[in-house]
Amino acid sequence: MKTFQLIKPQKSKTREILIEMEEMAQDTVSSRLLIMDVRRVTRFKLQRIYNKIVGYNRRDFNKLCFTILIGDGPVSLFQAGKSLDVFVSHLSAHRVDYHPAVFFYDPFLHYEPNETKLQKMHEEFVLPEKIPRRFIPYFKEDQDVSVDKIRRSFRAIDKPETIKKKRLEKLRSLYKKRIAEQFPHHKDQLKAWLSKEGIRLATEKLHLYPLFFEDWVFDLMQKAIKKKT
């Protein structure tokens, strides 16, 4: 059985995290898979470091090294006339910046502009902890539930496979309901968006986090290993 080493920042304060990541940037040339958080609230602080990482790995992207992006989507997502087309330019920009193998949109990371606070470069990361307001009606028993708790519950790491499947089905059902409500013009593409293949928007594909996330991690690692040999 093959084992893989997960490398991530160990510090807790913003300035220390940024220094640590910058020191690690060149070492990523030996990585086979990079997973990047590109949501708006963190990206502006990490962009310079991400640029370095991309620079060190550019020639190997989608050959010996693959990138998975997890983001919160375009800021105008819910003001775009109930259309997913707003994702097209968003994904194209990420294609130019990061050359991703896969892009995951995490609905629980997308907040309306009035739900988040603008931060300065020198300030500590202040990540929203509560779920976005639009999800509150679906969690009436615990309206103050945190995003972290939701994520851990639905991913069900270290839980029996039966429990994991049951929770993922519950999440799929929630996503299905939200998509039907928010993007009624894309009902015919609903099945694709909930699948491992994802939904095609122009020349890009979009996936829903965390559906099939672990499968993509495994597949891309195997692909990188085969190409290396």
Can I get a quick summary?
The chain has helices at residues 14-24, 40-57, 86-98, 147-155, 161-182, 190-193, 213-228; strands spanning 33-37, 66-71, 102-105, 199-201, 204-208.
Query: What sort of overall outline do the alpha carbons produce when their principal axes are compared?
Result: globular
- Oligomeric state of this protein: single chain
Arrangement of strands in the largest sheet: 1-2-3-5-4
Instruction: Indicate the radius of gyration in whole angstroms.
Output: 18 Å
* Poorly predicted runs: none
Mean pLDDT reading: 88
> End-to-end distance, in Å?
17 Å
Q: What percent of residues are in strands?
A: 5-15%
In DSSP terms (H or I, runs of 4 or more residues), the helix count works out at: 7
The share of residues in helices is 40-55%
Structural class: alpha/beta
Q: Could you state the order of secondary-structure elements as H and E?
A: HEHEHEHHHEEH
- DSSP strand tally: 5
Largest sheet: 5 strands, mixed
